[in-house]
Amino acid sequence: MADPEVLCLGESMVLLSPRAGQRLATAQEMALGVAGAESTVAQYLADLGHRAAWLSRVGSGPLGDQVLAAVAEPGVDVSYVERDPSAPTAVYFKDPAPEGTLVYYYRAGSAASRLTPRYLDGLPIASARLVHQSGITPALSAGCAETATALFERARAAGVSCSFDVNYRPALWRAEDAADPLLSLARQANVVFAGLDEARHVWGTDTAQAVRDLIGSSITVVVKNADVGATVFEPGVSRGTFVPAPRVDVVEPVGAGDAFAAGYLSAWLRGAEAAERLLLGHRTAAFALGSVSDHADATSLRRTEEPTT
């Protein structure tokens, strides 16, 4: 089997959510699923025809089995995931509230939170075209933060491109604690994804241009503005390229940002122009927005030709 084209590092969890029309506090039945930002990116990349691998750790019990099976289902390589017999697989709950979906995490002390840079030893980083991770990982533990930094350092040393999604999670850390670590990782990447709302909350940047100016003009910066659209700023180009978001009947917004990143990166790996990258990002995100799960089968978006290798 050929080495993976894209490596995605991060924690995935078992997801429990009430059946339709129920709230978490009174639910009698729960639906079980699997979700995680980076594994979702890997799943959509696999849908789009890329050799994607998910890098992480899970517990050795049946919940770990659930995670591995779900992530692997669309063709993601999970052979590099470690099993930990002494730490659990993380779990989280969704609560569909009138003001929006509320999320409750139970991930402290999880197998993935025990990641250290040693986990990276022996991984096929040098043969990949791209490594991807998000700002969730450094929030999980000191070891995870060190691993996130080490992944980009090793990739850059090998001449491998790096992608970073800010993915700020206020349930995991305060904005003042997250600001510097997230900016440091963003400045190590070749491609950065940031939501305008999260950038405003963490860094105080009010416009897409301000986000680009903060991260740096030598980096490709993609700024998403919810259902308005997204702007990409490329190195050597002073003005950004904006593509509006299509109208979508939203079933569940969680996972759409990861789908967008996967679509954009798929087009980027093919060498597509800026507007085409943003368009495929929006089209892939539409699949997630129309589904109750983080990952919805998007293989219909796959191009007839194989991605360039």
Automatic annotation (TrEMBL):
Residues 5-293 form the Carbohydrate kinase PfkB domain. The keyword Kinase applies. It comes from the Bacteria. One of its GO terms (cellular component) is cytosol. InterPro entries: PfkB_Carbo_kinase, PfkB_dom, Ribokinase-like. GO terms for biological process: D-galacturonate catabolic process; D-glucuronate catabolic process; DNA damage response. It holds the Pfam family PfkB. GO terms for molecular function: 2-dehydro-3-deoxygluconokinase activity. Keywords: Kinase, Transferase. The keyword Kinase applies. CDD domains: KdgK. Belongs to the carbohydrate kinase PfkB family. This is Sugar kinase. It comes from Amycolatopsis taiwanensis.
